[in-house]
Each structure stands twice: as C-alpha cells, then as structure tokens.
Amino acid sequence: MRISFSLLLSAFLATVKGQTFTFDFPPTGTGIGGPDAHQVCVEGAKWADLITTNDQSEESRYDISSTDFRNGDKMDANWAGRYAVNIPEDFECKGGILFQHDKLKPHTSHDLTLKATLADGETKLTVCAFYTFFYQHSPSPNWSDTLPALGFTKSLRLFQKATSGDYKQYYNPETVPYFNQINTLCRSFDSVIDSEYFDEAEPLPATVSYTFPEVGDTRILSGICIKGAQFASATNSVADYPELRMSTRKFERIDNIWWDNFWFETNRNTGYGMPMADYAWSARTAAWTAGNPCEGALYLQPQHLDIVGFYYEEPRFTTHSRITTEADMERFRKNLYTVDIMPVANESSVQICALISRSYWYTSSWLNVLGDYGFTTNGPDKDINGFEIFCKDVDANPNTLVTDANPNTLVTDANPNTRVTMKLHL
User: For residues 224 and 353, is the Cβ–Cβ distance under 8 A?
Assistant: First the structure.
C-alpha cells in the first residue's frame, strides 16, 4: 500500500513496552501560598504528569513549564515572574521535566501524584521536590518533614529564583532573600530496587507525528501550538538547526514566544531585566488577542532566534556566534521539523498551529507554503503580537490511516492492544 504523498509518509504499529512510575506525595500542607507553591522536577522520563488528586479543577492542574530544566526557565507561572538562576551543572534534575503551579489556591493542602514513563534506555528516575522557607509558618506537616522519611535527601546543589530587578551583573546569591532561595529534596528511584513504584506501562494514547514541509527559511520566528495534546516534542532533520522545546500546556500572554539564553545573560550583564527585555519578542504584551487559536494550548518554543548567531548557557557573560558558511546555509534551508504529539485521552483530533511573523521578509516562505498543505488562518484579527497563526485539524484516531487511492478511506487496525505512530507531512 502506497501512502498519500502529501498527507501521510509512513505509519507503523509498535506494541507498548516499558514501565510506569507512580509516586504519591504526602500532603503539601497549608503553609505555602501564592508564588511559592510546591514544585516538582523529574529526570529520566520521556513522559510525565503531576496530578492534584484532591482537587480536579483546572486551576489546580500543574503545568509542564520545561522539558529541559535549566537557567532562565520561568518558575512562577502567573505570579511574580521569577526565573531559575545559578543552577549548578551537576544538579540532580537539570535537564529534566519541571512542573509548576498555575493558579493554586494559597495556603491550601494538596495531594499530588507523579506519574512518569521511563525514557528509552533508562532504568531509574530522579525526582526532586522544590519549596521555600515559608514552610516554617505551616501549622500542618509539610514536605520538609515528610519526604526525608521516604528516602528524599536535601540537595547541596542549591539555586534561586530571581526577578528582573534582582538579576543583574553583580547578583550575589549569598544576599538573596530567603523567599527566593530554593530548598530541594531529591530521591533516585531504581526500577529494579524500587519495584514497588514501577509497573508495566499503562497504555498511552498513540503518538501522532507530523513533519512540516521544507520552506527554505533560515530564521525561525515561529512557535508551534497544539490543542488537544498533553505532551509533545520536536526534532530536526538537520542536527544543529535551532530546536523546539515544550514550554507550557497552557499558553497565555505571560509566556515567552521563544527562549534564547542570549537575552538571559546579556540582560544580566546590563541589568535591563530578563530573559526577554525587549517585549517585542514576548507574548507578554497588549498585542495578545484573546481567543486566538493558541490560547490555552500546548506550546513548543523555539530555542533560538536564528541559526547564524546563537548562544550558550555557559560561560557567563559571553556571547557566542557562529560563522556560518554558504554550504551550511544551504543545508539549514532543507531542515524539516517533525512534531510528535501525544493527544489527550479520548480526543478524536488535534489542532496544530504555527506562529509566523508577518513583519520580516525572511519568514515569507512559511506564509506562502503552509496554505498549500491545508493550513488556514484567521489573519491579523486573531494573532499574537504580529505573529499570524496558521492551523490545521488532524485526526488523532490511532487506528486510522489515509491511503493514496482514496483520501477518505479509513484503514482500521484490528488489534486494539497495539500502539500506532503516524508520520505525516503537512
């Protein structure tokens, strides 16, 4: 069977294998509220969720704020706008999945359950719990009292939260107020030794994979948002092309359109604020149009502005820029983004959207090409800060394929116990 040239490049069935990790945290206690609610990080997982089991309201849902926890990541969701700073290279959960609260009720005790699936080739997970010194005012037990009895130990690799006003060239961690110091308790769970926390993997929704067309642009200026998804990741066909990383499941006007450590460090050097001093590069502006297709969606964030100049986390105060040859530029123009999406359970479709700037000539390829692949746009009436949003609905039924002979023909897999991964060219 030959698959449709424009919609479906390949499809294959893969039985779900692996192990699921489940850990029930003790009650958080009522001493912490506002921007200092408890947070969790897990390293070694390819998928994870932190569930508030005693409160199912949307406000009490924890969000994934990073799938690569590092300096410059936002820590406070809708509250104080503080970012992680001075995370040591050997911190136990650096590079892991970070969960943050959104609009939790202050001074309310929550029961949290962490569920995760081991990354391919991994045999253990590292789980870290973050909290501040506010726990000292709590009238009820808190993680600082209960987690050590469950095998968690206090990390000696400390870091802080910092606001734009605090994080400047002469920032001194020793003088940071106690409410910006992060206390961390971590534990490593081995799938063999700690088998009581691991079980055969629960069936996850089938991963639907989409590959964007080759557009020839060398500047990014585009994020990807997805409605109807609980987890997503992206890969490049060109290895050193700028990456896309998941930064939120609730994309809002306070979220940055892209992350670039250049802004994080140069702003520290000049003291102008961080990590996006120029609000033209941020969704945190009045130009956010309420009700746009990306509002409340999962967001994949470009990690660099372009491929000519880009920046690293270390060493501090140093701007790195690569001299790019014409041969490199030709190679970069052929990059293809492939997005792997895990739909929300029982969703029949997902909506995938691309944010494309109308302000720059070098993004015209995106503007001209996407319409040929079934994407539509509402134009500037539903945009974000000059970024036009192009969207397409895609079937998320794991048992449905589309054939060349008849694009409306459904081919159903007869085995309900297999997992389907579909790769599509959009």
Answer: yes
